[in-house]
Amino acid sequence: MYGGDEVSAIVIDVGSYSCKAGYAGDDTPKAVFPSVVGSVEQTEGMDDPKPEKEADSASDSKNGAKPMDVDKAKTKRKLYVGQELEFRRDHMEVISPMKDGTVTDWDIVDNIWNHAFRRRLLINPEEHPMLIAEPSTNTAQQREKAAELMFESYKVPALFLAKNAVLTSFASGRATSLVVDSGGGSTVVSAVHDGFVLQKSVATSPVGGEFLTDCMMKSLESKGIVIRPRYSFKKKETSPGEYKIVDLDLPNTTESYRLYCMRAIASDVKESVCRVPDTAFDEVAYANVPTTSYELPDGQTIEVGADRFKVPDILFNPSLSQTIPGIDGFADSTPVRGLQRMVIDSINKCDVDIRKELFSNILLSGGSSSILQLKERLEKEVLEESPQAARVKVMASGNSVERRFSVWIGGSILASLGSFQQMWFSKAEYEEHGVSYIQRKCP
Q1: What is the pTM of this model?
Q2: What is the CATH class of 209-323?
């Protein structure tokens, strides 16, 4: 119907940390870039090419986005997406369109999609069916908004919305599994049965990669280590082969951009040295562990000791984060559950007859699942709390790229299947039945 050899579908997955986009049938996404954007408030009369300004304000009014300033004619925001974020600009705020995995700012998502299609994949969206990955916790309004944007702004010929957990399940070739998706903004555990998410089983936690990165950053700062963002210094040659670091004075840099750059460094420290401890973290037992050294961009070498184990253990024991100076407690009064509790609770909410199958098909996915030893530790913890008869098996692709992109890869497999082609929600159906029909077409 739409698939076939001439036109391949486009698979796009906007996560809370990065956006992945590419062609169905490929092994990995063609374009991967951050899902945050830089925003600069512009006053009318600043040198900006005219057409872009009109297009922007048109899209602003269409998406109902209100600029920060009341005076519509005077200010509008200019958004920088993808690689444009790497360059520091005066007064550029870094904003994320997501909160707890749900889209809060559709104007930004629109810009991210536009960047993916026109700048990175270099396609005309009117010619390709789109498969969009969505969080398992998405509401009906969110789905309708996404469909409306796709059909109205991009005039796509057909669309399908698929839940993240289902796609991860497909990527590993299973119809029934318990998907533990630990991404940048949150961790979501959901049971998938015969290709459908069991909504009652979905458990979420605000502990994701970004939170662990913050813990790492604050913990290093509490030990007196200064993380200098890359834009804030330059190397000056004092004598041949010897350099000294010169700090640059850039008073107009916003706090959010400074934090964004520092997080990028702290995140790399986390990915390079951290591993999950075999047993629950204990300050005394881990006080004398051998340290691992890491060289920061400005040339100073730091030694990371107990934090290597403490930071990843927050996934299993969120209350550990309270011991790190500068980390605020979680906003809700409800205690945040550790990973093993979420898995057990999620399985217990499902029907008795599929629990056994879920225990033996626990799938790890998402960027944060690449931390060393996470799979072994989760298996051990769940085994201790599970019923005697259950065979607990935690699976994760050995390839960290596959873990990071498992949702996208599942979408790529699904959209290229011949049997899937009659499931698209087409533009004709959209025009005939209206946007709410998406709820029936994409369960």
Answers
A1: 0.89
A2: alpha beta
